[in-house]
Write a structure and sequence with these properties.
Elements lengths: L1 H17 L16 E3 L2 E3 L1 E5 L5 E5 L4 E8 L5 E3 L21 E3 L5 E2 L3 E4 L2 E4 L8 E2 L12 E5 L3 E8 L10 E9 L4 E10 L3 E2 L3 E3 L17 E4 L1 E4 L13 E2 L11 E2 L10 H6 L3 E6 L8 E6 L5 E7 L3 E5 L23 E5 L14 E2 L5 E11 L2
Antiparallel strand pairs: 1-2, 3-4, 4-5, 5-6, 7-17, 8-11, 9-10, 12-13, 13-14, 14-15, 15-28, 16-27, 18-21, 18-23, 19-20, 19-22, 22-25, 23-24, 24-28, 25-26
C-alpha cells in the first residue's frame, strides 16, 4: 500500500510540474513577461472586472498588451495589437509603439528643436528631420516602477533625468490604468519637473475591434470624431501653424462614416502627406472629459470604442505604415490599415507654436492628463 501511495504521489507531483501555465483570458503566459531590461524587472499585470473584461499591462513602456471585450454574441475578442512576450517589445527585436505610454512628448517636434525662456534645446532626430514620441529612447522603451497594483488598477512611475534625450529638467511621471465595471479603461497621467520643460503624454494602443487584426482592415469600421477643425502639416507632418476647417473635407467625421470611404481621396493633399489618416483633430469638446471625443464601431462584431479626454486634440492614425513585417500575438501578421490609434494629446509641435495651448511644465506645477477608452456593443 505504501508503495502504491508513493507511486500515486509521484505521479501527482509530476503532473503538477508539467501542468499548463495559468494563462490570461487573452492566452498570454505572465511568466513570459518576467524578465529584465537594463537591469530592471519587467512584469505583466492583469486587470479584471465584474463584467468579465480583462486588460493586461506590462511595466515595460507602460504598455497595454491585450484587451478582452465581448462582442454582440458574447464572445470575447482581443482588440489591441501587441506581442505575447515582453522580449518582443524590446527595441532590438521590434521597433514598435504598440500599447505604449508615450513621453516626454507625444507626436512630433519640428527639427527636434524648441526654446523655453530664451534657451534653445536640440533633441535627437528619430523621424527624418524631426523628433518623434520623445526621441529614440522615449518612455515607451523604459521600465516603469510599480507603485500600486491590484485586480482593478495599476499605477506606474518613471523618472526621466535632466538631459534625457536632451530634454531639460528631471521629470517624475506616473500613469495609472483603472478598469471599471462599466468596461472602461481610465488612463490618468501626472508629472512634475524641477526645471521648465515640455510634456505631452498619451497612449499608443493600436485597436482592431474585430479581434482579427490579420484578416480585418479598419477601413470597414465606422468612425465619429467630435471636431470641426484640424492642424494641416508640411511634408514632414509638422503643423504649419494654420487652423483649418474640416467642412467638406475627407477628415470631417462629425457624421458617422465608414473609415475607408474617403481614405484614398488623393486630391486632398493632407491625405497624401499622411498616407491616409494620420492627423491631429482639434476637438470641439472644450477639454471636457465628460464629452465624447470620438467613436469607432466594428460592424462585424458590434464592438464600439468611445474615447473621452480632457486634452484639446486627438491624433488618429490608421496604421498606414504597418507593412506585414511584424508578427504579433497568435501569429497574426500586422498589415497596412489593420489597426487604428486614437491618441489624446496637445497638438504636435506645440513647443514651437506659442499661440497654441501651452505644453510647458514649470517647477511647482503638476501636469494632468486623462483619457478614457470605453467599450460597448451595438446591435
Amino acid at each position: 500500500m505504501k508503495r502504491i501511495a508513493k507511486i500515486a504521489f509521484a505521479a501527482l507531483l509530476a503532473a503538477s510540474c508539467t501542468a499548463a501555465p495559468q494563462l490570461t483570458k487573452s492566452g498570454i503566459d505572465p511568466a513570459d513577461f518576467d524578465a529584465e531590461y537594463n537591469g530592471q524587472k519587467t512584469q505583466l499585470f492583469t486587470l479584471t472586472n465584474a463584467a468579465g473584461m480583462e486588460v493586461c499591462i506590462t511595466n515595460f513602456g507602460g504598455r497595454i498588451v491585450s484587451v478582452m471585450v465581448p462582442d454582440r454574441k458574447g464572445e470575447y475578442k482581443d482588440v489591441v495589437l501587441g506581442f505575447s512576450t515582453v522580449a518582443e517589445y524590446f527595441p532590438e527585436n521590434n521597433d514598435s509603439n504598440f500599447g505604449a505610454c508615450i513621453g516626454r512628448y507625444a507626436n512630433r517636434i519640428g527639427a527636434g528643436r524648441f526654446s523655453i525662456d530664451g534657451q534653445e534645446y536640440n533633441l535627437p532626430l528619430n523621424d527624418g528631420k524631426n523628433t518623434l514620441h520623445g526621441g529614440p529612447t522615449g518612455f515607451h522603451y523604459r521600465v516603469f516602477d510599480v507603485l500600486e497594483a491590484d485586480a482593478k488598477h495599476v499605477k506606474l512611475a518613471l523618472t526621466s533625468e535632466d538631459g534625457d534625450n536632451n530634454f531639460p529638467g528631471t521629470v517624475n511621471a506616473t500613469v495609472t490604468y483603472t478598469l471599471t465595471d462599466a468596461n472602461a479603461i481610465e488612463i490618468a497621467y501626472e508629472a512634475t519637473a524641477d526645471k521648465a520643460t515640455v510634456i505631452n503624454m498619451t497612449n499608443h494602443s493600436y485597436f482592431n475591434l474585430s479581434g482579427d487584426p490579420a484578416g480585418h482592415s479598419v477601413e470597414d469600421d465606422v468612425m465619429y470624431v467630435n471636431s470641426s477643425r484640424f492642424t494641416p502639416t508640411d511634408s514632414g507632418l509638422i503643423p504649419t501653424g494654420e487652423i483649418a476647417s474640416l467642412e467638406g473635407t475627407p477628415l470631417d467625421f462629425r457624421t458617422e462614416t465608414r473609415i475607408g470611404d474617403r481614405i484614398e481621396c488623393t486630391d486632398f493633399e493632407p491625405i497624401n502627406l499622411g498616407h491616409g489618416y494620420d492627423h491631429n483633430w482639434i476637438l470641439d469638446t472644450a477639454c471636457d472629459l465628460g464629452k465624447v471625443a470620438a467613436t469607432v464601431t466594428c460592424p462585424e462584431t458590434g464592438i464600439c470604442l468611445t474615447v473621452r479626454t480632457d486634452e484639446p486634440g486627438i491624433q488618429i492614425y490608421t496604421g498606414n505604415f504597418l507593412d506585414g513585417s511584424i508578427t504579433g500575438k497568435n501569429g497574426a501578421v500586422y498589415a497596412r490599415r489593420h489597426a487604428i490609434c486614437l491618441e489624446s494629446q496637445h497638438f504636435p509641435d506645440s513647443p514651437n507654436k506659442p499661440e497654441w495651448p501651452s505644453v510647458v511644465l514649470r517647477p511647482g506645477e503638476t501636469y494632468h492628463s486623462n483619457c478614457i477608452y470605453a467599450f460597448s456593443v451595438s446591435e
